[in-house]
Write a structure and sequence with these properties.
rod-shaped, 13 helices, kinase activity, alpha+beta, 5-stranded mixed beta sheet
Length: 414
């Protein structure tokens, strides 16, 4: 798809054109040289440009061609030696005119040198060179009367007028160049800002996908591992119990595959809605069943209307409960767990167990708050913080561990 130019892009096009002319070290000098050559040949083949009768015009010779070509050649090197370029362009033009050659487009050599060098910031050199050039122009002979110079009052005023116009043009180009550079810098900053924003969004998306995969796989694989151990232990003595464990493994595998498929669908960038959308609080019952199949007795209490919770909050709440139960099953050595879910001004969660108090991989800080060294607790905190909420995890005095989370609903944070 072709990007359409924005208003800011269209407004910057003149500045881009100025910058191109200023930076061109081949195209502009070459075009000027061709125009000088063609114009000089025309001046000699068609007579004086001012309509005189070629009185006092010096014949075209090799030295005239050297002077005509000196200006464009010097402009080609203006970035390496700007002062030399200005001197060569002005002096070659003035010498050409003082020697009495036919008037031609060689004036453009001085014009381009003053404008381009002055626009690059060499104001003092341009002003000094232009004034000296204007003074020298007073001694340029006229072709209408042989030997007569331009020292009359009208000629002096005309020269001063052309000098001021040339300097004003150089100042104008300097301002245009400055605006062009500022516009180019602004566009570069805008491009860098967009790239940084794109990288930030991509990083956040990768983090979210990693968090989803961690929650899905850690929970499901933990349940599968527990049920597999149960099946191995009772396979010979109680085949029916082994069958229940294998059935739980089947259900956990199917659920995990469905959720992983949904995450991969988003990762591939498919625009169609995933076949298995991310689970929310409405599937807490299924989560409890899977935990109980792993041998954990779970008591679920719901206060308020869970359907009032926004989808993002509901999905985050489900993942927090899921990760909490995963930690209980894997690390706590608990027999029971209690889940309290309250939906009012926001979503409030409390998951408590009667295990050993500090699950493996969870340290206790000076404030009594648990700090996970793995990905589980940090991931839960990030989920809550991303929606403007908070989460704490700490051992319960005596025995057990408790996770408390609160996520406000959007209307409460606006």
């Amino acid at each position: 798809m072709t990007d359409q130019p924005t208003p800011s892009t269209r407004s910057s096009l003149p500045w881009t054109a100025w910058l191109w002319m200023e930076r061109s070290t081949v195209a502009v000098p070459l075009a000027l040289l061709l125009f000088d050559v063609a114009g000089t040949i025309g001046a000699y083949s068609g007579g004086n440009w001012h309509g005189d009768n070629n009185v006092g015009i010096r014949p075209l010779d090799w030295f005239a061609w050297v002077l005509v070509a000196a200006g464009p050649i010097a402009l080609h090197h203006r970035w390496r030696a700007p002062r030399t370029t200005l001197f060569v362009s002005l002096s070659s033009t003035l010498v050409y005119l003082l020697m009495g050659y036919a008037y031609g487009p060689i004036y453009l050599n001085a014009l381009f040198a003053v404008v381009l060098i002055g626009g690059a910031g060499y104001r003092r050199e341009v002003w000094t060179g232009s004034v000296l050039f204007a003074i020298g122009m007073l001694w340029v002979p006229t072709h209408s009367q042989k030997g007569q110079t331009r020292t009359s009052a009208i000629d002096v005023l005309s020269t001063i007028g052309w000098l001021l116009a040339l300097l004003i043009l150089a100042e104008l180009f300097r301002v245009l160049r400055q605006r062009a550079l500022e516009s180019a810098r602004a566009r570069e900053q805008e491009v860098r800002a967009r790239e940084q924003e794109a990288r930030r969004q991509a990083s956040e998306e990768r983090l979210e996908i990693a968090r989803e995969l961690h929650d899905v796989l850690a929970h499901s694989i933990s349940l599968i591992a527990v049920q597999a151990n149960v099946a191995l232990e009772v396979m010979d003595r109680r085949p029916e119990q082994a069958r229940i464990a294998l059935s739980a493994i089947k259900d956990a595998s199917r659920s995990a595959l469905g959720e992983v498929r949904s995450v991969l669908t988003v990762l591939r960038g498919d625009r169609a809605a995933p076949r298995d959308p991310a689970p929310d609080l409405g599937r807490l019952g299924h989560l409890v069943e899977m935990a109980e199949a792993a041998g954990l007795r779970v008591a679920l209490s719901v206060v308020g209307d869970l359907e009032a919770a926004p989808l993002a909050v509901s999905q985050a709440g489900y993942r927090i409960v899921q990760e909490s139960l995963t930690n209980v099953v894997r690390h706590a050595g608990a027999a029971r767990a209690w889940i309290l879910v309250e939906s009012a001004a926001g979503l409030r969660l409390r998951i408590t167990d009667d295990g050993r108090g500090a699950p493996l991989g969870v340290g206790v800080g000076a404030d009594g708050t648990g700090h996970g060294t793995g990905n589980g607790l940090p991931g839960m905190r990030e989920r809550a913080a991303a929606l403007g909420g908070s989460l704490t995890a700490r051992p319960v005095p005596g025995a057990g561990f408790r996770v408390d989370a609160f996520i406000p609903y959007p209307e409460e944070t606006s």
